[in-house]
Fold this sequence. Notes:
It is a single chain. This protein has 331 residues and is of the alpha/beta class. It has helices at 7-14, 18-24, 33-45, 52-59, 77-90, 106-115, 131-136, 164-177, 198-208, 224-237, 252-264, 299-311; strands at 64-69, 94-99, 120-124, 144-148, 159-162, 183-187, 215-218, 246-249, 275-277, 294-296, 319-321, 324-326. A six-stranded parallel sheet has the order 2-1-3-4-5-11. Helix 7 links the parallel strand 3 and strand 4. Helix 1 (7-14) crosses helix 2 (18-24), helix 2 crosses helix 3 and helix 8 crosses helix 9 (198-208).
Amino acid sequence: MRKRATAKQVAEAAGVSKWTVIRAFTPGASITEESKRKVLEMAAALNYTPNLLARSLATNSTRQVAVFVDDFANPQKLPFLETLTEQLQAAGLVAMLININNHFDHVNALLHADQRQVDAIILFGTAFRDETLTDLQLGHGMPQMFVLARDSQIDGVPAVVCDAELALRDIVRHLHERGYRRPGFMSGAAALSTALRRRQHYVEFWAEHGIQNISLLSADRYSADAGAASVRAYLASTPADERVDVLMCENDILALGAMDEIRGNFGLKIPEDIAIVGFDNYELGGSYGYGLTTYEQPREEMVRAVVGMIKGTVEPETVTLPGRLVVRSST
């Protein structure tokens, strides 16, 4: 194999400066088409590709973005991650995926990201204590942080979220118009600083319709098994004439597990005995076997906003975007 050329060698061969070579390989950099063409042709002839590590030392930017994720059991994470990595790569950035778990918590993750000098950190649906920032004492040089798909209650950390208030108002209005009067709500894994606020708005909007008694269920994580276990415990302990007539689950994965349990082990009909609502519009929920009524988050727009903040083309501030109600046979 031929030895890889340097930027200086390409510059000399193309008759341009070294900085012109660097600009030719920098997305969005100011350079004439003729200069870029000459540089790229000579780079191909000399087997040159830019050394990103060396460039990061010169520009003080690694173009890496750390993405923290803590609930991989939720398959709805995958479409978001696909969109996020696609848009980051289109912007010349690369995602560093960090799994938050019992053995590698936020403290370890923050230190890991800081040591690798990432340009930004995205808290993707993770529960995060703002006291952690103080405890770490990483200083003012710490990468900018953003919260994606949950509210941020951390000072100075903007969030990009689906408008939970609008979403739950639309959902409750739909359910009330369909005649449901004994609502329930199933929460997922408890969140700390980055809450969803879906249960809060669900309770508030039912109260506006004069209904104060909301049955509250909980699951220990976002998974179909957890949704099934939660509704199983509820149905087993609640007389048939006292059960809810509609159950909203905090996301679609919980809802799908609940639906399988309701029909499979208890022989109940959906929506005749219990109607079900989810959140996220996960693809499987739209299949004939489920027909799940849900709420779709504006995934593309949410990711575009957070990537714009990282690039500096969008003001870094909390952004709340509207989604849409998707009505199917489960209600």
